[in-house]
Amino acid sequence: MPKKRVLPYILLGLINNQTKMSGYQISQEFNHEIGEFWHASHSQIYPELQRMISDGWIEPDDAVKDSKSIFYLITPNGKNVLKEWLSEPLSEKDDLFSLKLYFIKDQDSPLLKNLVQQQLQINSEHYLHLLSRKKLVFSDESKVRDNYGHSLILNRAIEREHNHINWLKNTLDDLK
Amino acid sequence: MPKKRVLPYILLGLINNQTKMSGYQISQEFNHEIGEFWHASHSQIYPELQRMISDGWIEPDDAVKDSKSIFYLITPNGKNVLKEWLSEPLSEKDDLFSLKLYFIKDQDSPLLKNLVQQQLQINSEHYLHLLSRKKLVFSDESKVRDNYGHSLILNRAIEREHNHINWLKNTLDDLK
DNA sequence: ACCCACATGTAAGACGTTACATGATTCC
DNA sequence: GGAATCATGTAACGTCTTACATGTGGGT
User: Fold this and answer.
1) What is the pLDDT of residues A117-134, one digit of tens each?
2) Within an 8 Å CB–CB cutoff, is residue B152 touching chain A?
3) Within 7 Å: CB of A72 and strand C?
4) Which of A145, B76, B116, B144 has the lowest tally of Cβ within 10 angstroms?
5) Residues 59-78 of A with CB under 7 A from strand D
6) A67 to chain B, minimum CA–CA distance in Å?
């Protein structure tokens, strides 16, 4: 199976969030908030927008007659595509958790709880995996001495997972 | 300036860590510890090893006459290249901190303290940046309600930076 | 008139993935 | 002898980056 593309869904999500966006505005977005989680250059964005038009996900807004910018609107079909993407199960590999959360505006959306629960599951398994690797690879102090940098980042990774799991649990409680 | 490649330095670091490795062994490594931070498929690794030979970074170990595997050793030149890469200033963009730590075996290496200090600087700046974005974008509660998912991950990102900074500070103290 | 920010687009090349291909060894 | 694993390599393709290219509009 070919690897699932992410960029078109991000563009869809951005247009959906703001109701109406130009290619230039989208490319600027990656310098701000969404830039924490993803990046795309304008040379990627413009052709992608054309593809999305031909797929019927978005359409140019003919109401605005600006000599410079072209604004795009999401179509009903596009709204469905976005919702389906947001509903797809998270994978441990590509880590789309934060990105997808960014596109959920409503506190009461069932997608929200769903995403947090899935991520909690993924992180819990990963946490246990890291603990077992630590036990295996750093079974005694001499191994730590001989691979000190490695032992540092493994401990850091374990702590990070621990923190993330706690945050996810707290967030889940707040959502209930 | 062309974007700096990472893969060859990882291969160099792996070979250096283990003294001697075959392409197959390297590809297996990405299924284990180093896989937390990077991945490469065998179809990338084999040609890369050839390039590294022609650059004089590594050399095949002729002492081992295995009908299957080809083992590679790091050259003195390769050792220098690796050390220089580890000494290059960290950038906020590509986040090579964990990866580079992985290749530092000695607790007393000056590179260790150097890396932690650099990363501390980067994370501290990023932390302040996130706080200012939060103040700007979520200036009142209605903005939070209207972009709930976004506010969640922004708060999560702030907490994560905070945790990471604390860990870096503690680690730095331990190193002194 | 000139410069700069805005705005959109195309082309070439680097990098990485999946798929294709081949051969040796080990285990049953 | 057949299957699975070990081991190396090439080919085709998709994605993303950098560079090239063009035009508009506002400020001085």
Assistant:
1) 999 999 999 999 999 999
2) yes
3) no
4) B76
5) 67-68
6) 30
- Which residues in B lie closer than 8 A to residue A112 (C-beta atoms)? 148-149
Q: Which fold has domain B7-89?
A: Arc Repressor Mutant, subunit A (1.10.10)
Question: Which of B86, B120, B148 to mutate to test binding with chain A, by most A CBs within 10 Å of its CB?
Answer: B148
pLDDT digits (tens, 9 = 90+) for A41-63: 999 999 999 999 999 999 999 88
